[in-house]
Design a protein that fits this description.
- The two termini are 36 Å apart.
- This protein is α+β, with helices and mostly antiparallel strands.
- It has a four-stranded mixed beta sheet with strand order 1-4-5-8, covered by helices on one side. It has a four-stranded antiparallel beta sheet with strand order 2-3-7-6, with no helix packed on it. Strands 9-10 form a two-stranded antiparallel sheet.
- The longest helix has 37 residues.
- It binds flavin-adenine dinucleotide.
- The site of flavin-adenine dinucleotide has 21 residues, from β1, β3 and α11.
- Flavin-adenine dinucleotide (FAD) binds next to β1, β3 and α11.
Length: 409
């Protein structure tokens, strides 16, 4: 068993670290403060992309730090999931870095879908500009009226009528929909309620400016709008798109949804681990430098032990996630199902716990926006819900575990 990253991955890790330290870290705090002040509570349609982000993206592209998530050599850098995982970890230490390297959700998942399942025309129209970073996208599956952790529950419709698809319904938690460059939506809707449970839904490409598509509101997360991407509630009223916008084929939405989530979950988890590392670093620095009752805070109460516990938890989470990545690369999404569910529970929970303790160690400063802890906490808390809540993943793990026991039914 070789625990080293490949030579190629090591080179990218070095370059990404340098880029983040030198170009992103010094400007990101101010960038988010500006975006927040400029946009909070305003009409989202009036947003514009900061020239700073455009400039950083060009620099990243010029350095070959672009589309690293895509295993394909033509459009990505040809990295396997296990090679990309440590790069996602580095990106997770910054809120801005994933976008700068064109490696941010939900665009990565959407690009993977188009890359894997799109027709030549769909790729030309949407994948090419997404890969260039010229446009952004949203993924609309979750609905306010049904328990959306079960993808087969979706009620919004995508009905084929002649050479068109007619779309109706309401989606919410559509991440990225507020971005000024969001031009395309991947919509999952019910096409045939009489088909078997896993063949009822389809995925359809909907240009964001199609008549009948309305962003009803943006949803705050713990009171913050998560600018500049945001999460929206979107209504679709008699939206018509050509049949050629169907991805893969009618009734194949569930199949695509499963294919989309494997690598995406590894990326989320590795970013969580990177964030947890960064937060632990800040926690330690603070506890070493601040004195209370005559001692550095690190030497008070059980703080030293807590640091050890976080070191153990982060290292365990990383090893498990890399194992899941290896299984995904070697056995495909089906072969890695249990491990992907395991990390999806573990990694965001570790991040959440480290954030909670970092807040505690920082006292009042910890809950302010002078430090990134509340924002990372919100990320962790949301990832414990998005892409399958913890409870659903635990259910799957147990189901697979019990297969080993013939009497378990
Ligand atoms: C910040 C954020 C961003 C998101 N981005 C997107 C996006 O871009 N596109 C998109 O389509 N969706 C997105 N989502 C939605 C997310 O994927 C859903 O919220 C998630 O799938 C859960 O669906 P639900 O909210 O309907 O919860 P429900 O399905 O109503 O589940 C609620 C709770 O019920 C319990 N539960 C459900 N099933 C089980 C089970 N089998 N066993 C035990 N307990 C269970 C769990 O505690 C679960 O948390 C996002 C969500 C958040 C918070």
């Amino acid at each position: 068993m070789d625990f080293q990253h490949s030579a190629r991955a090591q080179q990218y890790i070095k370059k990404i670290k340098k880029f983040i330290d030198e170009k992103i870290r010094p400007v990101e705090m101010q960038y988010f403060q500006e975006v927040h002040q400029r946009n909070n509570g305003q009409d989202w349609s009036k947003w514009s992309v900061s020239p700073l982000v455009k400039e950083l993206k060009e620099q990243a592209k010029a350095e070959g730090l672009w589309n690293l998530f895509l295993p394909d050599t033509e459009h990505g850098q040809g990295l396997s999931t296990i090679e990309y995982a440590p790069l996602a970890e580095e990106m997770g230490k910054s809120f801005l870095a994933p976008e700068i390297f064109n490696c941010n959700a939900p665009d990565t998942g959407n690009m993977e879908v188009l890359h894997k399942y799109g027709t030549a025309e769909q790729k030309d129209t949407w994948l090419t500009p997404l890969l260039k970073g010229e446009i952004r996208s949203a993924f609309c599956m979750t609905e306010p009226d049904v328990a959306s952790s079960d993808a087969t529950n979706m009620q919004a419709t995508a009905i084929v009528e002649g050479d068109e698809i007619v779309i109706n319904g309401t989606k919410w938690w559509s991440s990225g929909i507020g971005h000024p460059d969001c031009k395309v939506i991947i919509f999952m809707g019910l096409s045939d309620a009489s088909a078997n449970r896993h063949s009822q839904h389809s995925m359809v490409l909907v240009p964001a400016d199609t008549e009948g598509v309305t962003i009803e509101r943006m949803l705050p997360v713990f009171g913050e709008y998560d600018e500049p991407y945001g999460h929206g509630e979107v209504s679709f009223k008699n939206v018509r798109v050509p049949l050629s916008n169907m991805i893969l084929g009618k009734g194949r939405g569930f199949e695509i949804a499963q294919g989309r989530l494997g690598p995406g979950r590894i990326h989320h988890c590795m970013r969580c681990i990177g964030a947890a590392e960064y937060v632990l670093k800040l926690l330690i620095e603070r506890s070493l430098s601040r004195v209370a009752f005559g001692k550095p805070i690190i030497n008070l109460g059980g703080n030293r032990e807590r640091i050890a516990d976080f070191r153990i938890a982060i290292d365990q989470a990383r090893l498990l996630t890399l194992y899941a990545a290896w299984k995904l690369d070697t056995m495909g999404a089906l072969g890695a199902m249990t491990e992907i569910s395991e990390i999806k529970v573990v990694a965001p929970n570790v991040l959440q716990q480290v954030c909670d303790e970092a807040i505690q160690i920082h006292g009042g400063a910890g809950v302010s926006n002078d430090f990134p802890f509340t924002a990372f906490f919100a990320v962790a808390r949301c990832i414990r819900i998005a892409d399958g809540p913890d409870a659903v993943h635990r259910g799957l793990i147990t189901r697979f575990e019990l297969l080993k026991y013939p009497n378990s039914k």
